[in-house]
Amino acid sequence: MSHPILPKRAIAAHFLPDRYRYWYSLSKLAIDPLYAAAPGAFRDASEPVLDLGCGIGLLLHCLRASGRNLPYLGVDTDAVKIEAARNASARGCHNDASFEVCDLSVRFPAHRGSVALLDVLQYLPLPAQGTLLSQAAECVSKKGQLVIRTGLADGSWRSAMTRATDRLGHWVGWMKTSFKAQPSAQELRAGLRRHGLRAEFKPLWGRTPFNNWLVVAQRP
Ligand SMILES: C[S@@+](CC[C@H](N)C(=O)[O-])C[C@H]1O[C@@H](n2cnc3c(N)ncnc32)[C@H](O)[C@@H]1O
Known about the structure:
- It is a single chain.
- By secondary structure, the protein is an alpha/beta fold.
- 39% of the residues lie in helices and 17% in strands.
- It has one domain: Rossmann fold, CATH 3.40.50.150.
- The protein has a seven-stranded mixed β-sheet, with helices on both faces.
- Helix 3 crosses helix 4.
- The two termini are 21 Å apart.
- The structure holds S-adenosylmethionine.
């Protein structure tokens, strides 16, 4: 599937005057294939999106730049990132978009539609991953999708590299939360099936050395 060409500099400019966030978002958009691929995974043009662990809200900008004007709510436990996400959303003049501070291990927002869970699972222990996955799956409407990006535990060198980089990210302070565990494809597929979702797995590592996969689950 061909992906849209994102206006990377224009999106990154929404994070100015914070130069750190400008360069961070520009490099993420340039290097990580996630942001060009994710908008196309939300196949229905009207289902609202709940972005779990949204960080600075890059998904919102990519959705809008790809012509997907879906109502959007981003939640994250990191209040500083949520503040940055709100400011950038305002600078981008995005309507129907909001952000909330929310620790998903304590509270799960009420929602019906589509759900994004991008690079978040690895920061939760396996039992908590199962709980979050169940809560996310329960929100998915008939026409909605659950879009997950995650590293997978499969014994490959990419899998080991992904774990090591996630640990390093915490150690150098990029991530407040520490790496906990990678799910396996079998665990993920079985967990989604228990909630009536059928999942499609596609590798999404682009030119990176990571074992990243895009998982799109929906009701058959
Ligand atoms: C690697 S970042 C991914 C950000 C965003 N989803 C993206 O792909 O650009 C992981 C995010 O998960 C958030 N996170 C980790 N544990 C969380 C929790 N218990 N509740 C809410 N957010 C959490 C972190 O604060 C961080 O912003």
